[in-house]
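fold-stage: in
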Amino acid sequence: MIRTPLRPLARILDARAKGENPDAIERENLRQRHEEMRDAARQKAEGRLLMLGLAFLVGFGAVGFRMGVLASTEPAEPKTAPSGIAIVAQRADITDREGRILATNLVTHALYAQPKQMIDPVGAAQKLALIFPDLDAEKLKKDFTGAKKFLWIKKKISPEQMQLVHEIGDPGLLFGPREMRLYPNGPLAAHILGGSTFGREGVASAEVIGTAGVEKTYDGWLRDPANGGAPLQLSIDLSVQSTVEEVLYGGMKLMNAKGATAILMDVKTGEVVALASLPDFDPNTRPAPLTKGQAADSPLFNRAVQGVYELGSTFKLFAVAQALDLGLVTPDTMVDTKSPMVWGKYRIHDFHNYGAQLPVMDVIVKSSNVGTAHIAGLIGPERQQQFLESLGFFEPTAIELVEGPTGKPQRPKKWSEISMLTISYGHGISASPLHLASAYASIVNGGTRVIPTILKTDKVQQGARVVSEETSAIARTMLRQVVVRGTASFGDVPGYSVAGKTGTADKPTPQGGYYKDKVIATFASFFPSYDPKYVLIVTLDEPVETSGDEPRRTAGWTSVPVAAEIIRRIAPLLGLRPEVEPGTEAAVTLVNN
C-alpha cells in the first residue's frame, strides 16, 4: 500500500515561497487519510452485514420450509426401531363368490406393561381389573411389583377399552398397534373359514396365521405381499350358506338330532356353494379343542368333511347304476327280494316285506336291501371295488380344506363276498357326506367324475367317465320316482322336481356291533331331476321324530323334510324359477282300421 506523506517537501517549499502556513498542508493530508480509512472500514462493515443478512435469510427460509412440510404431513407417534426381522401383519381378505366379505382385517391395539416405569402399580392393577373383568387383580399386582420388566396384558383391546386405560394415566401402561382377523358374519361358514391366531409377536406388530379351514390351507397365499392384496374368492354363496345353516339348525332341533350337516354342490363344476356342520362355533372366539371324549363332540369337528359314516341305502344307487352300465340289468328286470336273504351264517333283511320279486326300478324306489344285494352278486367284488374307487370312495376328498385329508373312507381290509353284499346297501364301508355329494354329482351329471372345490370357478370339469349318459339318465328317472312314490315322498318341492335317495344306517358302538336306537339318517338329493344343477346332501346324527305315537328315525321322516325345506328356500336364491316338470313324449301307436 502506497501512503502519501503528511508533509510533502515540494508542497512545503512552495507554500513557504508563497508565504503560506505549511502546517495547513499536513492537517489537510491527515484529514484525507482519515476519510479514506473511514470509507474502507465502512465498506468492510457493510459487506459483513450483507453476508450476515444472507445467512439469516437462508436459515429462516430452511426453518420455515421444514415447518411447512411438518404441518402438511399426518401426525405419527415416534417408534423405536425394532430389532430382528420385521413382522408383516397384512393379510388378504376372504370373500364369497359375489365378493362379499367373509374375513378381513381390523386395526386395533395390544396392551402391555413395563413395570419398572409404573408410578402406581397397585392402583393400576386394580383399575385394569375393573376395565377387563377377566383379569385377576392380585396376579397383576404380583406381576407389576415383581422382577418382570415387560409383560403382555391383553393381545386385543377395543377403542373404548383403550381410552379407559389412557385415563389411568400410568406411563408404564403402553399400547402396540395390531391387525386382528375379523369374521363379520360370526359363526356363518365357520367350518369353511376355520379361524386364525397370532404367531410371532412384537411391540410394533403381530403375525396373523391361519389355524384351520381355508385360513390354514391358504395361509401362505393370504400373507404373500406379491398378491397385491387381492382377496381369496370362495365358491360359497353367503346368502345360500346363511339359509342352509338356518334351516339345518331348525331341522336338527325339530328332529332332536345331536348333530347335522348339509352340502350343496354344483354338479358340473364341483363348486361347493354351501357347506354347514352343526354344532358350530364363532371363529372370532374360536374354542379350544377337546382334550377328552370323542372328537365329533367338539363344535370344531367338521362333520361334512371329517365325519366318516356308514351312509346306508344311499349307496344302493351305485350298485344299480353299475349293473345298468354293465348291461346286467334293465329298469324292468325282476330281482329276487324274498326276505331274509341267507348267505352262509348271515341273514339280510328288508325294512318291509316286498314279496318275492321287484323290478330294478322298485328296488331303488322301495329301497330293498335284499334286491340290491342280489344285483351286487351279479357284479362281483372286484368290479364293485373298481367302480367305488372310480367314484372317489377309497381316498380323502381333494377339497381345499386342511381337514380334508382326515376324512379318509374306511373299507374292509378283505373285500369278501359278504362285504360285497352289505356294501351294496351302505353297510361295511364308511365315507364322509362330501364323498357322497361328489359321487352323486358324478352319476347324475351325465356320468363324468366331479371333484369338489371350495374355490370359485366357472370351468365345467371334464372328469373321467364313470357311467354312460344313458345310465345317468336312467338313474335320474329312478331317483325321481323315489320322491314321487317312494321313501322320500316328503322331499317333493313343487316346481323344482327334486330327486334323491334316502339312507338310514345304524350307528356302530365303540365295542363293536350296532345301536338299536341310534342312526345316521341321510338324504342324497339333486334338482331339477330332468336337468340337474345342484346336489344337496343332508345328514342328521341320531335324529328322532316324535310327532307320532312311536318315535321314527328313518331318513324319510327326518332328513328328507329338512332337505325339502332347504331346497324350497334356496332355489330362488340360486336363480332357479319354478317350472312344470316336462312329461314323457307321447307314444305313437299304429292302429289298423
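fold-stage: in (second)
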Amino acid sequence: MIVHILHWKLAGRTLAPLEFNEVMHALELGIVTAGFLFMAAAILATAIFGRFFCSWGCHILALQDLCAWLLGKLRIRPRPIRSRLLLWVPMIAAGYMFLWPQVSRIAIGAERASMRVATDADGWASFVTENFWRNLPGPGIALTTFFICGFLIVYVLGTRSFCSYGCPYGAVFGLADRFAPGRIRVGPDCTQCAKCTAVCTSHVRVHEEVARYGMVVNPACMKDLDCVSVCPQDTLRFGFGRPSLLRRIVGIKEVQQRFDFSWPEECAAVCVFVVVLVTYRGLYDLLPFLLSLAIAAILSYAAIVGIRLLTRPDVRFHSWSLRKSGRLTGGGAALLAILTLVTGLTAHSAIIRYSAFCGERHYHSAFGGGPLDENTADAAITHLSRAQSWGMLESERIERMLGDLFTARQRWTEAEDSRRRSLDGAPYDAVLLSKLGLILSHQGRHKDAESAYLSAIRSDPTSAEPYYGLGVAKYRRGELRDAVEHLEEALRRKKDYADAHYQLGTIFVETQAIEKGIQHLSECVRLRPGFGDARYNLAVALASAGRLSEAATEIDRAIAIQPDDVQTQRFRAFLESMIPIEQWPANEARIRPALQEEE
C-alpha cells in the first residue's frame, strides 16, 4: 500500500486502487477496474485454497492482530463476544453492497451496464489513473477507520471481531470457502489436546471439528496455520480433499456454538445496531459504510452492557467490575456516564441525518421537472438549513444544495453567501464560480459577475457554462458583440447547450439577423420542447421573417406550455389580426396533445 501511494505521488499516475469496494462501482457503471479484478482473483483463489486472503493479505485483520498482540503485552486479553444475530451482519452487508443495486436496477426496468474498459478521460479509469484517491476517504477518516475497525473493536468485542460482525468481504470469502478443497485437515494421531483451539484467534473449535469431520469446516477459519504450528503431534496440516460443503454429517452431532446473549438481548442489540448504522453512515458526508458497521457493532454491545448495569446486581467487562452486589463501582459509573454521552451524541446525529434526508428528498422533488415547486423548495431549505446550523460539522454537499435552492427562489443575498461558503472549501471550482456569477448578474453586479466567470474559465477552460454566463453578463451590459463571441464559444464546447442557443437566438433577432435567430431558437426548442419563452421568441422571429403560418403554430405551442402568460396571449391576438381565421394552421386543443407527446 505504501509503495502504491508513493508511486502515485512520484509518477503522477499509478495502478488504479486495489480496493474491493470498486466492485460496487464496476457493477454500477459497467467499468472493469483493477479492484474488481483483484476481488475476482481473490474469490477464485479462495474457492480453491480456502479463506486465506483475510489472514495473509488484509490490512484490517493485520491491525486487529497487532492490537491483540499489544493488549497481550499489557496483560489484557479481550474476551470474544458471541452473538447469534450479529453474525448475520457481514452477509446482509455484502448483499446490500453487491446484490441489492442489481435487484433495484431490475425492479425499475433499467438496463444492465455493459462491462467496458475506461480511462481518466471517461471519469473513471480501469487500470491506470491520476486520480488514485477517487473512492477513498481522506487521511483523517482513514486513520479513524483503522483505529476503530482495527483496534477499538478488538478491545471491546474480542480478536478479529470486525471480521465476525462487520466485514462484508469476509462474508463473500466465507461463502467461497465452503467450495474450497484446501482445508485444515487432521491425521490419525490427534489426541484432542485442544491446543489448536486455544491458539485460534478466529474462535474456531478446531479440535472438535477435526474430530467430527476430519477437517475444519467453519468458514471463519482463515488458514493462518497457527493451529498447525502448535500441534504437538504434527498431525494437523493444510491439504486438499473433499470440500466442507460436501462433508458427511449423517449420524454426527454438529459442533455447538456458545452465545453470550439472551434472545431479548440479541433483539435489543440488533435494534441498536440498525439505528446506529442508519444514523452514522454518511454522517456529515464523512463516515463510510465499513466504519459505520464497526461503530454499530461496538455500540450494540455497549447498549447491552448498559442494560445489564441497570438490571443486574453483578456486571463485569473484561477484568473490570462495573457493578458489584447491586452497587455501581467507580468504573461502572464512569462507563454509564460515557454511555449517556454517546446516547446523546447519537440522538443529536440522528436529528442531523433526518434533517439532511428530508431536505435532500424535498430538494430532488422541487427540481424534479417542470416549474419549481416553491413550497417544496422552502421545505428543503428549512430542513437543510437545520442540518447545517445544528450539526457539529458543515456538509459541502448540503451547502451546494442550499445554494441551488436560494438561487431558484431568487433569494440573492442568501444565495451569494451560500456560494461563497462553498468556495471557501473549493476556491477553484469552476461550477461554483459560474453559479456565483449568475447570482451576481441577477443582482445587477455585472462587473463582479464577469470577474467570477473569468475565474471559472481560468479554472476549467473546457467548461461551457462560464462562457455562457459571461455572454449573458455582456448582453445585459449592452455589449452585444462580446456577448455573441462568448456564447458561440460556449456552443463550441457544448453543442447541445439549449440556453446558449436561446440567448444567441434572442440577440440575433434583436439585431435583425432574423434567419440566424430562427436557426438558434429552433435548435433550442428541439433540445427543450417545453421551453415556453423560447417558443414565444421563435414565433416572434418567424413573424418578423413573414412566415406567419409557422409563427402561429409556435405561438400556440407556447400558449400550451404557459397559458397564463400575458405577453404570449397578446402576440397570439396580434397574429390573429394578421391571419384570417380560416387560414389559422391549428388550434390550441390540437396543439396541446401534440406538444405533450413531443415532450
